[in-house]
Amino acid sequence: MDSHAHLALSQALDALAADEVVRVVVLTGAGERAFSAGRDLKELAGGGEDADTVAARWRQITRLTDRFDYPKPLIARVQGLALGGGFELALACDIIVAASGASFAMPEPKRGLIPSAGGVHRLPRQMPLKIAMGCLLTGRGIDAGRAFDLGLVNEVVPADRLDAAVAEWAAEIIACAPLAIRAIRQAAAGGLGMPLHTAMAARYEAEDIRRSSRDAIEGPLAFAEKRPPRWTGQ
């Protein structure tokens, strides 16, 4: 992904965040070969456009990996390779659903780089430390089955079942109250860096909104009346 691709993704994420109809965002790659092979190293090395033009474009970009309070749930649909920055994009999502042939790696140290888009920090938080450090320090990859065993991936399915599996995850999220989903995501992300007692005592804006919403009444009422809830997001 070069700066043009990152800008397009940034603009798409902005548009989806503002679209009240959208409840879940699915991130995937085109074709079967890769989810994403990561940063365009030719651009990074200074090939093509001049450095000032590229730098100016980057100033317009808010990367997915920097969006710590994105308002919509994110599902990574991974088929093929997720390398470097591509792996970091998947780690920044809430849920990862992978095809059985998918694989993940951060080969940055082999290129004199580090996974600076959050990978060096997210990976040790999302899998056992020693295994994470082994991947980070060597650039070794792991396949989808191993990633599932380590808790890094939510589900692994055959490639021909990948779209259906992603749709099932999205449908289950959409069946939940949208304000509750946002509050859960904000509290989980915000509390990760805090001691447990501090995280539980903290106030979260999205939870304040949910608590005083009509949906907070609708959920228990629908249960009592033995009917599906009618969420309004208000």
Description:
This protein is of the alpha/beta class. The chain has 2 domains: 3-174, 2-enoyl-CoA Hydratase, Chain A, domain 1 (Alpha-Beta Complex); 178-224. 47% of the residues lie in helices and 12% in strands. The protein is built from 12 helices and 8 strands. The strands form 2 sheets. It has a 4-stranded parallel beta sheet with strand order 1-3-5-8, sandwiched between helices. It has a 4-stranded mixed beta sheet with strand order 2-4-6-7. The longest helix is centred in the first third of the chain and has 16 residues, at 3-18. 30% of the residues are buried. The model has no long low-confidence stretch (mean pLDDT 93).
Notable characteristics:
234 residues, 2 domains, 4-stranded mixed beta sheet, 47% helix, globular, 2-enoyl-CoA Hydratase, Chain A, domain 1, alpha/beta
Please provide a brief summary of the model.
By secondary structure, the chain is α/β, with parallel strands linked by helices. The protein has helices spanning 3-18, 41-44, 51-58, 85-91, 119-126, 129-138, 144-149, 162-174, 178-191, 196-201, 205-211, 215-224, and strands at residues 25-28, 34-36, 74-78, 81-83, 95-99, 103-105, 142-143, 155-157.
